[in-house]
Automatic annotation (TrEMBL):
Stated name of the protein: RPC5 polymerase
Pfam families: RPC5, RPC5_C
Organism: Mionectes macconnelli (McConnell's flycatcher)
One Gene Ontology cellular component: RNA polymerase III complex
Residue ranges, compositional bias (Basic and acidic residues): 146-155
Domain DNA-directed RNA polymerase III subunit RPC5 C-terminal: from-to ranges: 444-684
A biological process term (GO) from this entry: tRNA transcription by RNA polymerase III
Length: 684
């Protein structure tokens, strides 16, 4: 009651619902206007609309006499578009860019919650909006200029051609007779993006007449924004109970997935994705990406996701191929579907794709002709299978697109063994269906394997790792018992003397990379810049007391924090190089010499507020895996945090971006225009 007395009601306003312009009122959102164009007194040369699509095009005149207008640039644009001759088809008859076309796009798919309000004499009149359209400049005149340029080049090149040369260009064509279209094929065609684009293009434009702000017709239409009758009988929508009124304000969410067209713009954002259950998230990611390392999958799911739950879910929708996860065929080709190329049912497509996946479990390379000969599928279907998981190499065949993920195979031998058993079952089915010969089942020659040591199968790698562990297990067990005996006999064992740790000191060059040992699960035998002596009875990375581990973590965190505050973005390779240089500058016996693995360094980077940026580098890049891992400081506490985050999001979608695209994206996301110096600082 005390709070209500402190905030008294000072005025009550009557609200009326105006229905005169119902389903006719649109809200236009204009872009930031140039200095040479004002929207209140600008001349609208023409306007047209496509009612079904709610698409509008406005043609506006530009004030060429404005001192901010660059006349030479306007003349150059007009010359590029229309050329030297002017006729009725010319875009700019005045030989000057004196007009600009704006094309609309829908700002919101559901505008039922929006209304235009007019306040007059203590009354608030609301008119529901039928659409909200954002107007943006249209640059179709640039396409026209490019077409003119290509026509001139073609005319210059083809001016000296003769009739004989024209006859040489005759090419053989293949005539195909289309089979009758099934109902399922017709439904897929109707829902396709090309069909929707064609239907949108077929809708005719309806030309409109524009009335200015001060025109008498505009003043007359503006009166319809007020409710014509103030009686309660005409405003029954506003007479609701409190519960009904709350339901109108916050209606329950309605699933609109069935109404959305299957278009490239219909993409699920990461924010929407993370609202789904974990199994659905993994299925959607794998269905879109098709091939993904486990580390990348974990980074896309966000921090805090349980890796055990992810492993359990990913095995339901993907299979392990060369240490990477490849989406299952029945996820891409559900039951009762067929090939868009040949009409082959999904069951046959799944068998053919499974054969391609199985071939990649045997070797890095697959030949398309061999796949087509075994599966008896058309070339387009086989090409789709191969493009899902491999890259074409000239005169070599198709190579699996990702390198062998040895790290995952070492960490999860039980998963590898289970997947191997699944592949044995798939192989048995393929042998029965395709009557595979010995040459299809036999692996490649040993010469090829010896020339490429990375082409070892997953099963062989697991067996080699197990044999190595068994070989060294006895020695490691004895060493552990000896250390326990020494720690029991020493009363001050809790405080470990760092200089007593045996370190083999070697010069660490700037080019020396950091490596991860094959025994990463056994306290990381290999450390950055320091390699243990072979046959040494004392392990370099023993069980350190808690106090020493805390000191190591503090020193490592200090190094990572200071490094990323100086250089906001670093690859893992560059970070390891800087860490090796840092180690070389430390005095002998420093706590960091106790051994820092790659995993410890990467975990510390993530713990200090940095994030891994998944830059989509091209598959043909020659960079090493460490050079492809990019980490960036997400929040530095300065004024450019938001700009830096927008920039990192841009580079997570494309590894090469134009400067003008970056500047426009920064302005759009941050709501402010940045000058050249500020953009340069963010980019640097």
């Amino acid at each position: 009651m005390a709070n209500e007395e402190d905030d008294p009601i000072i005025q009550e306003i009557d609200v009326f619902l105006a229905r005169s312009l119902l389903e006719k009122l649109y809200l236009f959102q204009y872009p930031i206007r140039p200095a040479s164009m004002t929207y209140d007194d600008v001349t609208h040369l023409s306007a047209k609309i496509k009612p079904k699509q709610q698409k509008v095009e406005l043609e506006m005149a530009i004030d060429t006499l404005n001192p901010n207008y660059c006349r030479s640039k306007g003349e150059q644009i007009a010359l590029n578009v229309d050329g030297t001759c002017t006729d009725e088809t010319s875009t700019y008859s005045s030989k000057l860019m004196d007009k600009q076309t704006f094309c609309s796009s829908q700002a919101a798919s559901n505008v039922s919650r929006y209304a235009a309000a007019v306040y007059k004499k203590g009354e608030l009149h609301l008119t529901p909006l039928h659409g909200i359209l954002q107007l943006r400049p249209s640059f179709t005149y640039l396409d026209k200029a490019d077409a003119k340029h290509r026509e001139r080049e073609a005319a210059n090149e083809g001016g000296d051609s003769s009739q004989d040369e024209a006859e040489d260009d005759v090419k053989q064509i293949t005539v195909r007779f289309s089979r009758p279209e099934t109902e399922q094929a017709r439904q897929r065609r109707v829902q396709s993006y090309e069909f929707l684009q064609k239907r949108q293009a077929e809708e005719h434009w309806v030309h409109l007449h524009y009335y200015g702000l001060k025109d008498s017709r505009s003043e007359h239409e503006r009166q319809y924004l007020f409710s014509q009758g103030h009686g309660l009988a005409e405003n029954t929508e506003l007479i609701k109970s409190p519960s009904e009124y709350l339901m109108m304000l916050m209606p329950p969410s309605i699933e609109e997935e069935n109404d959305k067209p299957m278009a490239p713009s219909n993409v699920l954002s990461m924010a929407q994705l993370r609202t789904l259950p974990l199994a659905d998230q993994i299925k959607i990611l794998m269905k879109n990406v098709k091939v993904m390392p486990f580390a990348n999958l974990m980074s896309l799911l966000g921090s805090g996701t349980d890796s055990t739950a992810v492993l359990r879910c990913v095995q339901q929708v993907a299979l392990l191929v060369q240490g990477n996860w490849v989406v299952k065929s029945d996820v891409l080709y559900p039951k009762d579907t067929s090939s868009p190329h040949s009409g082959v049912p999904a069951e046959v497509l799944c068998r053919g794709r499974d054969f391609v996946m199985w071939k990649f479990t045997q070797d890095r390379w697959v030949v398309r002709k061999e796949v087509a000969a075994v599966t008896k599928l058309c070339a387009e279907d086989v090409k789709d299978f191969l493009e899902h998981m491999s890259v074409a190499r000239i005169n070599k065949g198709w190579e699996f697109m990702l390198p062998y993920d040895e790290d995952f195979v070492k960490k999860h031998p039980d998963i590898v063994q289970r997947q191997h058993m699944l592949w044995m079952g798939i192989q048995a089915k393929l042998e029965k269906v395709y009557n595979l010969l010995k040459e299809h089942l036999a692996p490649k020659k040993q010469e090829a394997q010896s020339a490429h040591p990375l082409l070892v199968s997953g099963e062989q790698r697991v067996n080699m790792a197990k044999a190595k562990v068994k070989q060294n297990y006895g020695q490691l067990e004895k060493e552990l018992q000896r250390q326990k005996a020494e720690m029991k006999s020493n009363d001050t064992s809790a405080k470990m003397d760092v200089p007593s740790v045996r370190i083999k000191e070697e010069p660490t060059g700037a080019e020396e990379p950091m490596d991860t040992s094959a025994f990463e699960g056994l306290n990381n035998g290999l450390v950055n810049g320091l390699h243990p002596a072979q046959g040494s009875p004392e392990p370099l990375n023993g069980h350190l007391p808690g106090g020493c581990i805390d000191r190591v973590a503090q020193e490592l965190k200090a190094f990572v924090s200071s490094t990323f505050k100086k250089q906001f973005v670093l690859t893992l390779s560059e970070l390891k190089r800087l860490f090796n240089l840092h180690l070389a500058s430390l005095p002998p016996g420093h706590t960091l010499f106790s051994g820092i693995s790659d995993k410890m360094l990467q975990d510390m980077v993530l713990d200090t507020g940095c994030k891994q940026i998944l830059v989509p580098f091209p598959p043909q890049t020659a960079a090493s895996p460490d050079e492809l891992k990019v980490y960036a400081l997400w929040e530095a506490g300065d004024t450019y945090d938001q700009h830096r985050q927008v920039l990192l999001e841009i580079f997570s979608r494309n590894y090469r971006v134009r400067r003008n695209v970056i500047q426009s994206q920064l302005s759009q996301e941050c709501g402010e225009d940045l000058n050249k110096q500020e953009v340069d600082r963010v980019l640097k």
